[in-house]
């Protein structure tokens, strides 16, 4: 039992380190050598656990997708937010924070299509899932205004995250979100 926990803990540490490195340096620049150095593990351990860098990238994407889906569903089904608009705002904020879990997935869409096509498809699948959840949220609640379109909201999230990352500030994001919702 303790060996299983040790292995799981080590895998989680490698995934966490890899996510940080991929998010900071990109999928092509953060190589296996940097990952094993930062994770303080032998290179063989990485290959034993994940098979390849591609396998590691895929596991990082799966990990982030899972965490994001859990957060989005917690917002949607929470009684903490009174209206669908409030839930939609919170979903936008979740995805556009400077340390957002979505950052890695958006980066994967831009960087992995050719070299890591499975990781790319996994990131695109998350966007499709998110678009579907937003669509359901818009049409299940009181948001009946034609300006609210699920595709537009997902594209807004992408743009706001890129803006926040380039300016290293959330000020503009907050203004845009308020204007988007008519505030």
Report on the structure:
The chain is mostly helical and 183 residues long. 76% of the residues lie in helices and 0% in strands. The chain has helices at residues 2-25, 32-39, 43-50, 53-76, 84-96, 102-111, 117-140, 150-167, 171-180. Helix 4 packs across helix 6 (102-111), helix 6 packs across helix 7 (117-140) and helix 7 crosses helix 8. It is elongated, with a radius of gyration of 18 Å.
Judged by helices, strands and strand pairing, the structural class is mainly alpha
Largest sheet: none
How many whole angstroms does the radius of gyration measure?
18 Å
Percentage of residues in DSSP E strands: under 5%
Straight-line N-to-C gap: 55 Å
Shape estimate: elongated
User: How many helical elements?
Assistant: 9
pLDDT < 50 stretches: none
H and E string: HHHHHHHHH
Average pLDDT, to the nearest integer? 92
How much helical structure, as a percent, in the residues? over 70%
Tally of extended strands? 0
Question: What is this structure's SSE topology?
Answer:
Layout: H1 2-25, H2 32-39, H3 43-50, H4 53-76, H5 84-96, H6 102-111, H7 117-140, H8 150-167, H9 171-180
Helix pairs in contact: 1-2, 1-4, 3-4, 4-5, 4-6, 4-7, 5-7, 5-8, 6-7, 7-8, 8-9
């Amino acid at each position: 039992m303790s060996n299983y926990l040790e292995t799981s803990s080590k895998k989680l540490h490698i995934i966490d380190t890899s996510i940080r490195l991929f998010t900071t340096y990109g999928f092509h620049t953060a190589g296996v050598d940097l990952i094993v150095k930062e994770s303080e593990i032998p290179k063989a351990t990485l290959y034993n656990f994940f098979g390849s860098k591609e396998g590691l990238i895929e596991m990082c994407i799966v990990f982030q997708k899972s965490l994001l889906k859990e957060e989005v569903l917690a917002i949607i089904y929470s009684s903490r937010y009174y209206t669908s608009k409030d839930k939609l705002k919170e979903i936008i904020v979740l995805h556009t924070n400077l340390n957002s879990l979505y950052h890695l997935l958006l980066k994967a869409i831009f960087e992995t299509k050719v070299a890591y096509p499975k990781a790319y498809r996994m990131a695109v699948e998350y966007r499709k899932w998110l678009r579907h959840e937003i669509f359901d949220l818009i049409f299940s609640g009181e948001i009946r205004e034609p300006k609210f379109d699920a595709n537009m909201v997902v594209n807004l999230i992408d743009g706001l995250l890129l803006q926040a990352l380039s300016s290293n500030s959330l000020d503009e994001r907050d203004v845009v979100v308020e204007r988007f919702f008519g505030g």
